[in-house]
Amino acid sequence: MDDVLIEKIKNGNDHAFRLLVEKYRDHIFYTVYGVLRNEKDAEDAAQEVFMKIYTSLPQYEKQGFKTWITRIAVNHAIDIKRKKMRRQEEMNIEYEEASHAPPGESVEFLVLKRERQKVLWKRLDELPENYREVVEGFYIKEKTYEELAQEMDLKVKTIEVRLYRARKWMKKHWKEDDFS
């Protein structure tokens, strides 16, 4: 049944594609929903998956259609999830940058900030070597990502990633009490 529809679709029969969509709509939706866990995102992703299936049909070689479309759906949903996580991390980084130096800082804020910098300075040697320079540059010397990237001859994204990983490392290895 599927092979007959696929041949008709390859020959330009749009009605055959609609029949295929009807047959597999729920399967594709629940497949992407299983990865994305969001109904709206899954609806959008399912439509995108059917577009990918349509454009990829010439490469289909009768190796089990349902398995083939499931693989396309899962891979697409994983890509969407990765992009979403990347955007979330970027938003977190932007938020941290924005809160790094608020305008009109209070005296108390500045004193606490200096104290944290002193503690961080003392404990800098405990950090893994590849994080040390970016942590020192960003938190103690208060340089921007761009300045650090230029000085270290790295990409800005590399600086962001190293700072993100350094923060994760510090959260894992140091107690918050050490900084209060």
Give an overview in words.
There is one protein chain. The protein has 180 residues and is mainly alpha-helical. It has 2 domains: 2-88, Orthogonal Bundle (Rna Polymerase Sigma Factor, Chain: A), CATH 1.10.1740; 100-179, Winged helix-like DNA-binding domain superfamily/Winged helix DNA-binding domain (Arc Repressor Mutant, subunit A, Orthogonal Bundle). The protein contains 8 helices and no strands. It has helices spanning 2-10, 14-36, 39-56, 65-98, 107-123, 129-140, 145-152, 156-173. It is elongated and about 75 Å long. Pfam families: Sigma70_r2, Sigma70_r4_2. Residues 20-86 form the RNA polymerase sigma-70 region domain. Residues 120-170 form the RNA polymerase sigma factor 70 region 4 type domain. This is RNA polymerase sigma factor SigW. Belongs to the sigma-70 factor family. ECF subfamily.
What's the layout of helices and strands?
Blueprint: H1 2-10, H2 14-36, H3 39-56, H4 65-98, H5 107-123, H6 129-140, H7 145-152, H8 156-173
Family: Belongs to the sigma-70 factor family. ECF subfamily.
Organism: Siminovitchia fordii
Pfam families: Sigma70_r2, Sigma70_r4_2
Briefly say what this structure is.
With 180 residues, the protein is mainly alpha-helical.
Assigned CATH superfamily of the largest domain: RNA polymerase sigma factor, region 2, helix turn helix motif
Estimate nothing, just give the exact number of structural domains.
2
**Residue-averaged pLDDT, rounded?**
83
Into which percentage range does the β-strand content fall?
under 5%
Estimated radius of gyration: 25 Å
Order of helices and strands: HHHHHHHH
CATH class of the largest domain: Mainly Alpha
Pfam families: Sigma70_r2, Sigma70_r4_2
Organism: Siminovitchia fordii
Keywords: Sigma factor, Transcription, Transcription regulation
Protein name: RNA polymerase sigma factor SigW
